[in-house]
Amino acid sequence: MRFFDSQSPGPLFQQHACQLGSLAGTLFLLVLVFSQPVAMSATGLPINEVNMASDHQTYDTQKHQSFLIGHVNVAYKNYRIKSLEATIDLDEQGNPALANFYNEPHGKRIDPITKKEDTLDGKIIRVHLLENALSAEGDTSSYVTTVAANPITVKADKQRFDNNAKMVTANGNVIVHQLETTTYSPTATLWMDPITGKAKKAVFEGGARIEKRGSEVRGQKITVMMESGNMIAEQNVRSFVKQQKAASAAASEKPTATPARPMTIFSDYQQYDKLSDTVLSSGNVRIFYDDYKTDGPKATFKLKNGQVDRVILTGRSTIVTSDRKITADVITITTTPKHFDAVGNVKTKIMTKQDPTKTEPKPTSGGNTKVSSGSGAVNAKAGVKSKSAPPDDQLY
User: What is the largest CA-CA distance in the chain?
Assistant: First the structure.
């Protein structure tokens, strides 16, 4: 941060330069108390006391504003703000109501127990004294350490820390980063527990995207439970799961480690459970994976090492491969080796290449048929007892 040049005050204060007089070049400390302090806060300041220090200060009685220039330092409750210029707006009773910081402002919020700090930067920083809130505007960036086990970095057009409401909000081009996860959205809200002050959940709205290790989830609204790591994506949900090339079920083909196309999942709703490493999708579920295309009402994805290991579609689903279309009560897809099973009232339509003038073969059907596929080969075995789809409540 550059030092303030007393000969060249910022444009905000040029009209007040004539009022500074003999105060130039001196350090002036002003303490404003807008309610009688009756106790000390955990940060060592009297409750409701604003401490301001700067090179120069002046007060405009008509505008009810204090102007601070040069090495501005303001302390209020657990907030500490530094800048080169600032104004303090007073209410009709003469109590400080809003502090505005300009010209390289930097703010922080200190946890009174752990002494950890959350930092906030932007083109303008404001302390809402009567609302007990801290906000920033213009290319804002914050580093939050007090509410979660792992630090959270937030960038946005605007941010606000609200101590009374126990929430942090960000608006406009929001980017939130924690460990290996990065989230993009127009708006974001981080809710804290009112007692512990620890983060409970983060809600991203307006069309959100979460990225982690090459995979991503998109939805109109995404909610992340901070303690458990569980996630819910709603409305026009689309997921991309980065997969390694699946080993073929054919003995003649050797498994490879080259990347495969990601598994793409569309649905109305998706829920991730971190403990079981499982994703539940419902509502118009469509899956695209290599030459597999499936659709159905519900699907359960079993993950392993961040990749999809197995997919179970229930509720009368369909899978289309390069040469056939299969409909069944339950379809299970295994990615390593690449393979699928269809069980329960299975119907198969073989789509072979032929002269378009010839009649298309009729679909085969059978209520007690099991169809399995591996390396593109499908075998239908009559006489296999069909399995009924599990009840809906087993998915959740």
Answer: 102
Cis peptide before 186 (omega within 30 of 0): no
378 assigned to some structural domain: no
> Residue 9: what pLDDT?
39
Domain span holding position 60: 1-145
pLDDT at 18 over 90: no
Nearest to 80 by CA among 123, 118, 109: 109
pLDDT in tens, 29-76: 333 333 333 333 444 444 468 888 999 999 888 888 889 999 999 998
From residue 310, alpha-carbon distances to 23, 122, 332, 348, 349 in Å are 74, 46, 7, 22, 24
390 pLDDT exceeds 50?
A: no
What was the pLDDT predicted at 64?
85
The answer to whether the CB of 166 falls within 8 A of the CB of 197 is yes
Strand, coil or helix: 15: helix
DSSP state of 5: -
Q: Please tell me the distance from the alpha carbon of residue 131 to that of residue 385, in angstroms, as a whole number.
A: 68
In a domain, 137, yes or no: yes
How sure is the predictor about 374, in pLDDT bands with cuts at 50, 70 and 90?
Answer: low
pLDDT in tens, 133-143: 999 999 999 99
Give CA separation, 66 vs 5, 17, 279, 309, in Å.
Answer: 20, 13, 56, 64
Identify the CA nearest to 306 among candidates 216, 370, 376.
216
pLDDT of residue 20: 36
User: CA angle, corner 45, sides to 42 and 49, nearest 5?
Assistant: 130
CATH of the domain at 93: 2.60.450.10
